[in-house]
Amino acid sequence: MKINLSPTCGNSPKNKFVQDYTVKLLSFDFDNLANMSAENVKILIPDRGLIQGKANLIDIKKYLITDMNVLTIDSAISHGKYGAVLCEISGNEKEY
């Protein structure tokens, strides 16, 4: 998978963490993702669903295509304990 990162995360360690977390999540790198996640982590995928808890992170595969070709992160932001990412993923036939 080709990964295009946001150029704006370099000066903020928290924003970089949010970006790195997203790459691990959308690459289905669950071993490293578990080390980066709190037990009560919540992942909201707009118009698709909510994943709650570290043990359920693998459920991301239910909501997204698994044959991604390109991940482009436009921006990653953080505020306190919260973070958000604006990104685009594309596969062979679909874009999200």
Concise account of the structure shown:
It is built from three helices and five strands; from the N terminus they run βααββαββ. By secondary structure, the protein is an alpha+beta fold. It is globular.
Any chance you could write out the topology, listing elements then pairs?
Blueprint: E1 2-4, H1 13-26, H2 30-36, E2 42-45, E3 49-52, H3 60-63, E4 70-79, E5 82-90
Parallel strand pairs: 1-4
Antiparallel strand pairs: 2-3, 4-5
The value of Rg in angstroms is 13 Å
| Average pLDDT, all residues | 89
Poorly predicted sequence stretches spanning 5 or more consecutive residues: none
Instruction: Give the end-to-end Cα distance, rounded to a whole number of Å.
Output: 15 Å
**Which range best describes the helical content: under 10%, 10-25%, 25-40%, 40-55%, 55-70% or over 70%?**
25-40%
Biggest sheet overview: 3 strands, mixed
Sketch the topology as an H/E string, one letter per element: EHHEEHEE
Strand order of the largest sheet: 1-4-5
Shape: globular
Helices and strands: which structural class?
Answer: alpha+beta
Q: Beta-strand percentage?
A: 25-35%
